[in-house]
Every structure is written in C-alpha cells, then in structure tokens.
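User: Sequence recovery, please. Input:
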C-alpha cells in the first residue's frame, strides 16, 4: 500500500480549519440599515431604522496602525464620488476615532458596498460608518457595547453633515425608534401594528444645503407649539395610541422650510394623508418622504399612491414598506 499523500493526512483538515478560523478572526462583514431621521417632530434627536436599502462594510484587521479604505462600490447615486481618504470619509473617520480612543496597536482596512444613495435623506453617510464600526467591533478582543460605539459613530457622521447629531446612527445601532442626545441613545416603545412608507424619489438634496435653510431663528410661540406636538408624539408611542400619534406627528419648524427644496413633496404628503396616514413628513434632510400607518395593509395601499404623486411631479421613485420597529446593524458573517 502506498503512503498517504500530505493532502490526505489526518491533520490536513484540522490545519485548514485552524487557518479558516484565523482568517475569520481577522476579517468581518456587517450591514447597517437605512433610517428616517427627525421623524418630523424630533429634529436631530429622533429617528427609526427601516427595512430595505442598506450599506455593507467589510473590515480587515491589519498590522499597520492606520485606517485604510481599499474600495467603495455601489450602483447608487454618489457612490463613485466618495473619498477614499479615511479622514474625509464617515466610515474611515469612525474607525480612526475607535483606534485612537482604544489605543489599538493594529489598524483596519475597509471596503464599502453602498446600497443607500447619498443625498437621499435615508442616512447613507451614517450607515457607512455604523456598518464599519459594527464589523470592526467584531474583530476586537473585547467587543464594545452598542452604547460605547455611539461616540465613534457621531465622529464619523460629523464628517458628512458638519455637526454631531445621532438621529440616524442611533437607530441603526439599536434598531427601531431611538431618541439620540449628544451622549446617549434611548430606545423607545413601538407598537407592532405601526408601519411606515418611505418613498425615495430620483432627486438629490445635500444635507448641508437642507440645513442651511434652517439658519434663521424661530419665534418662541412656534417652538412651544412644536414642543407640544413632540410631547403628544412621544406619549402616543409609549401608550400605543394612534390618535395621539396623529396629533403629534405635525412638524411646524423644519418641514415648512425644507418642503420647497423637494419638488412634489406637497402632493406626496397629501396622497399619504388621503390614504389614512397618521402623519407624513420629510425623511432626514430629504428628498425622501415618509408616512406612518396603523397597519401594513394601509401602508402598502398608500405606497402606490405616494409614488404616483411623485411621478405626476416628474420623478420616478422607490417605495419601501417597513415596520417602524426596523432592524439594527448586524454582523452578517466573516469572509
């Protein structure tokens, strides 16, 4: 009988498994979902994640103590314009902040697959940095909590928006509806019957432009009314009370100034309300729009009407019907 070849050695499979485990410990992949920032009445402090578009980050642990972006891919608008320089990229800056704060001796190499268009109002810049952080966190000897990742996500998001606000990164990290302050993420109760329609038209609205129209001060009586709406909205969520949500989901501050930047918005909002929406407004900085409904069936019917409204304004669009209690970012496997 001839001697066994090295490839058929009883230890060969074990060695291959060990190598696979070693490779897996050096590389991870994660997704982050799109989100609805502000939810109308909660400018810069409320947001919820949605089922639908997502960004995916693949992160490798490297010996060199740097953060390097190897590639950015995606068929969505704006993907080819994103900087590969880590400090100018939301995902890159988030990983730089993570490395520096933890004093890591090693670095990270990053690849991004963009599924959320830039300038869409769906948290595309936030999703990149959250996906990168969740993947990198999986490679740490002692992974951090989601709360501990928050400050690094804010660091990354600030590269794109010019300010530190968590209404997109917080719901991506935790899922569902989240209240985001400068230092904390607070998950909020969401009834399981609550569904959203999010419609993304073929328009681009840069966040910095959308924030610029908010620069002028607001009169105090209007701020007081908005505060009352926010209180009704939050109480409606906590109690699962559709009528309180309907009364609260009315934005008096941001929507009136941003609506003129979104052709077709007024018609889309009317279509949503005519089909039973509890409320409708602008998703994040726009141009995407969202509406909340008391059931999935109502949301599905309204989604078609909202798309028609954008079409009549001259814009094709995509509609996503999603539980308001959407998913959180997760590792989707080492590669």
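Assistant: Recovered sequence (335 residues):
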């Amino acid at each position: 009988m001839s001697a066994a070849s090295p490839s058929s050695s009883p230890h060969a499979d074990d060695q291959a498994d060990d190598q696979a485990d070693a490779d897996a410990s050096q590389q991870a992949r994660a997704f982050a979902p799109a989100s609805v920032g502000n939810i109308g009445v909660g400018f810069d402090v409320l947001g919820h994640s949605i089922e639908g578009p997502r960004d995916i980050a693949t992160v490798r642990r490297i010996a060199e103590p740097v953060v390097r972006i190897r590639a950015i891919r995606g068929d969505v608008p704006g993907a080819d314009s994103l900087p590969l320089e880590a400090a100018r990229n939301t995902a890159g800056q988030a990983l730089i902040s993570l490395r520096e704060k933890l004093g890591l001796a090693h670095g990270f190499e990053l690849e991004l697959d963009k599924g959320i268009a830039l300038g869409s109002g769906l948290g595309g810049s936030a999703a990149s940095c959250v996906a990168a952080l969740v993947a990198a966190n999986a490679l740490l000897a002692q992974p951090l909590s989601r709360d501990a990742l928050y400050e690094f996500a804010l660091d990354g998001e600030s590269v794109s928006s010019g300010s530190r606000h968590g209404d997109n990164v917080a719901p991506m990290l935790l899922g569902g509806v989240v209240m985001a302050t400068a230092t904390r993420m607070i998950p909020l109760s969401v009834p399981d019957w609550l569904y959203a329609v999010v419609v993304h038209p073929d328009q681009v609205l840069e966040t910095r432009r959308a924030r610029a129209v908010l620069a002028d001060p607001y009169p105090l009586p209007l701020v007081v009314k908005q505060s009352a709406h926010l209180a009704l909205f939050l109480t409606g969520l906590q109690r699962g009370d559709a009528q309180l949500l309907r009364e609260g989901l009315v934005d008096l501050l941001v929507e009136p100034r941003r609506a003129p930047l979104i052709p077709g918005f007024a018609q889309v909002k009317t279509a949503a309300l005519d089909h039973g929406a509890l409320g409708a407004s602008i998703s994040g900085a726009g141009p995407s729009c969202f509406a909340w409904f008391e059931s999935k069936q109502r949301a599905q019917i309204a989604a078609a009407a909202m798309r028609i409204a954008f079409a009549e304004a001259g814009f094709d669009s995509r509609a996503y019907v999603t539980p308001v209690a959407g998913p959180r970012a997760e590792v989707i496997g080492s590669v």
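The first strand starts at residue 27 and ends at 37.
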